[in-house]
Amino acid sequence: MLAIVALVGLAVGGLLTAGPGTPDRAYELEQRLRCPVCKSVSIAESPAETAEAMRAVVADQVAAGRGDQEIIDYFRARYGDWVLLDPPASGSTLALWMLPVAAVVVGGVALALLRRRPDAVDEVTSEDRIRVRRAVDQVRSRVADGDMP
User: Fold this and answer.
1) Which residues contact 72 (CB under 8 A, 6 or more apart)?
2) What are residue 99's DSSP bridge partners?
3) What is the tens place of the pLDDT at every residue in 85-122?
4) Helix (H, G, I), strand (E, B), or coil: what is residue 67?
């Protein structure tokens, strides 16, 4: 029993003190490439046969010692920038990257204009005060008479 407790303690201690493992380069690259069949997921997450074939190509190129950018460029040459889940900020995709910035600027300008606009609060006239006072008095008299709950 003591030996089992000691082994479990060693295993837990090893797991707690161990640093993060080396990142899987192939998996990280697969996360950056879009599946041509599924179109909204990476090839790492796609069950499609095309994604499986692309994962094999990535693994082969990583094993051959090619750099990350070389592997990405290989797929860009065959599929275009579309294959990247995070397309570069240039050309036709530049508008997509600038859209959030433009939205923040427009929102900031709108907020500034709204804050500078004077408040349009009307003055309460003496006639309004008299009308409110009469209405309150009527409700109080009804409550006192027991007409209202």
Assistant:
1) 29, 32, 33, 84
2) none
3) 887 766 666 777 778 888 888 988 888 888 776 665 66
4) coil
Q: Check: CB of residue 27 under 8 Å from CB of residue 71.
A: no
* Predicted pLDDT of residue 82: 84
Mean pLDDT (the chain, rounded):
83
Query: 43 and 35 in contact (C-beta within 8 Å)?
Result: yes
Please enumerate in sequence order all residues whose Cβ is within 8 A of that of 48, keeping only pairs 6 or more positions apart, or say none. 35, 37, 38
Q: How far apart are CA 61 and CA 22, in angstroms?
A: 18
- E strands in the chain: none
3-state secondary structure of 139: helix
Asked whether the whole model's pTM tops 0.70, one would answer no
